[in-house]
Design a protein that fits this description.
174 residues, mainly beta, Pectate Lyase C-like
Length: 174
Amino acid sequence: MVTSQGPITVANLTASNNANGYGADLENDTTSDLAPQKVTLSGTNLLSENLYSGLYIWSSGPLSVGSLTACGNGMEGAYLRNTAAGVDGSAQPVTLSGSYTLSDNGSHGLNIYSYGPVKLNNLTAAGNSGVGAAVDNNYAGRVGGITLGGKNAFLDNESAGLGLSSRGRSSPPS
């Protein structure tokens, strides 16, 4: 677990077979008057077979996640949340810029809650016990929107393949 009031930067993370919690838990959700701080997970990251979520990020700042494989985790493959406004009231973005494989997780493959805009691409979500990928930035006074680009596949998930909820403009795959 990493808890910080500053930015968090991690590269090429592997977190597997953790029997007592999350694969990786990164938190810098400041509730004070500090400016939002970024969480960056870059490179190629593998999070598998963990008791809870493979990747758990809770922040008040922007989130940037590189390529990720999250498979066989007890809860979500990846849980990302930045639902706190900055000191100036600004909503912070979530950007997934690599390619993502989220499969056979005990809940959703990918679960994102954000006040800001969300950009994702190249998702493969298969065989998850919940929704393959669920993205929610549908909050009063927020109009961030959701952009889904690249090549995406949502296969054999128990609930739905893709769930998007937003007050802003959304562009699902064509």
